[in-house]
Amino acid sequence: MTTSETSECVLTMQALRNALLVVNGKWKLQIIVALNAGTRHFRGLERSVPGISTKVLAKELKDLEAHQFIARTVHPGPPVLVEYHALPYARTLDPVIEVLKTWGLQHQQRLDAAGSTASE
Question: What is this structure's pTM?
Answer without folding.
Answer: 0.82
